[in-house]
Amino acid sequence: MLPLFVDSILLDYNIGQIMLVGFVLTTLGALPLKSQQVIGLNTILFGVIFVLTPSTLMPSYYLFLGLTLIVIGPLVYVTADG
C-alpha cells in the first residue's frame, strides 16, 4: 500500500525536483548542529549529485544548480570557524 502511495506522488515530479527537496530537507536537518562545515559538505555533495545525474531525467537548469552548489560549497566550508 505504501509503495503505491509514494509512486502516485512521485509520478508528478521529475528527479531534479525530488533532489532539490532532499537538499533543502538535509540542510534544514543540519542547521541544529550549527556546523558550517557540515552545511558546506552537504552543499558540495548535492552539487556533485546534480551534476552527475543524467540530463534525460531532469531539465538542464538543474545542471547549472549543481555547478553553482559545487562553487558555493567549498566557500562555505573554508569560511567555517572550525
Please describe the structure with a list of short key phrases separated by commas or semicolons:
flat; mainly alpha; 82 residues; 4 helices; single chain
Distance between the termini: 46 Å
Structure classification: mainly alpha
Rounded Rg: 15 Å
**Helical run tally:** 4
The shape, in one word, is flat
Estimate percent helicity: over 70%
Task: Output the helix-strand order.
Answer: HHHH
What are the SSEs and their pairings?
Elements: H1 2-10, H2 15-30, H3 36-52, H4 61-78
Helix pairs in contact: 2-3, 3-4
Protein name: DUF8006 domain-containing protein
Keywords: Membrane, Transmembrane, Transmembrane helix
Pfam families: DUF8006 (PF26028)
Written description of the protein model:
This protein is mostly helical and 82 residues long. The protein has one domain. 73% of the residues lie in helices and 0% in strands. It contains four helices and no strands. It has helices at residues 2-10, 15-30, 36-52, 61-78. It is flat and about 45 Å long. The chain starts with a helix and ends with a helix. The mean pLDDT is 92. Pfam families: DUF8006. Residues 2-81 form the DUF8006 domain. The chain crosses the membrane at residues 13-31, 38-55, 61-80.
Summarize the structure.
This protein has 4 helices and no strands. By secondary structure, it is mostly helical.
